[in-house]
Amino acid sequence: MNYRWILGAALLAVGTGAALGAPAKDAAPSVLVTLTALHQGSLARTVSAYGVVQPGAAGQRTVMAPASQTVGAVYVRAGEAVAAGAPLLRLVPSPETAAAYAQARSAQRVAQQLATRTQQMFAQHLATAQQLADAQKAAGDARATLAALDAQGANGPTVLRAPFRAIVLRLSAAPGALVSAGTPLLALARPEALVLKVGVTPAQAALIQSGESASIAVPGQAQPIAGRVEQRGAMIDPASGLVPVQIGVPANRLLPGQAAEATITVGRTQGYVVPHAALLADDQGAPYVVQAKGGAARKVPVRVLGTHGDQDVIAGAGLDAGQPLVLSGNYQLDDGMHLRVAAQGAAK
């Protein structure tokens, strides 16, 4: 009897031990992730282009020789900044201009004497009213001719001065050069009237309108500069094959010839705004995101409508605004895999 009791107890112990020591069935795999809400929004739609800072058409002035003269002295150099009223060039009348001025001064003196004598004769009834009118007209014409030559600097050396605060863009004159009337001597530009001239493709140009804002990035400068589109070209530049766009820049921030990149805001793109880290690509390169549905992963194919900075605008028929978006750990997930959500503020 005791033998049977001992045997039964031993068998019970073995059975219990076997049950306790049996390996547990494998648990389903899970991935530690962080989540973020999926929400509708918009991002700026932009066009980026590179270009060079140039003087605007309204801020340029070409200084020309007023008469046939000789360049006596040059006081500036190309690229130099000059104040308003600063001397630029000294011009000396050429022999031809000096002779023309002498003749005009002599003609004016003779014409005035004739007009005075005719006036006296008219008072004595020795000249007609018509003769007096002709003499007075001749005197007036002679004065006008002399005044025009005076204005051109034909009466002596003339110093040409800067009409405004300017940058000397080009210098075409050299001391001793003989220049005729209308010859360009130098080109000036207002430093507060500079533009960034960039080139865009015809498709991009169709999106751009005058007045749109632009952000200008300059190599070596940490902060971008705000600008605004002043003009969008209506034809292609044969030299570059692009459509020129002029962007106004703030005064005293850039220099002529400086290279920069402009990002022009041409509108807004509507859709779901997501961090770029949430966007993945499958083996065929098609974009998708992962949403959390009841603690399990769900892959959703999407279309990328726009990108700005580190964010994207996406759309997709399978997106559910009520399901959070997997932000980190998403690249490890397949459909149906269990999720373990990291605590708020946990290290990633």
Automatic annotation (TrEMBL):
<dbReference type="GO" id="GO:1990281">
    <property type="term" value="C:efflux pump complex"/>
</dbReference>
<comment type="similarity">
    <text>Belongs to the membrane fusion protein (MFP) (TC 8.A.1) family.</text>
</comment>
<protein>
    <submittedName>
        <fullName>Uncharacterized protein</fullName>
    </submittedName>
</protein>
<feature type="signal peptide">
    <location>
        <begin position="1"/>
        <end position="21"/>
    </location>
</feature>
<keyword id="KW-0732">Signal</keyword>
<dbReference type="GO" id="GO:0015562">
    <property type="term" value="F:efflux transmembrane transporter activity"/>
</dbReference>
<dbReference type="InterPro" id="IPR006143">
    <property type="entry name" value="RND_pump_MFP"/>
</dbReference>
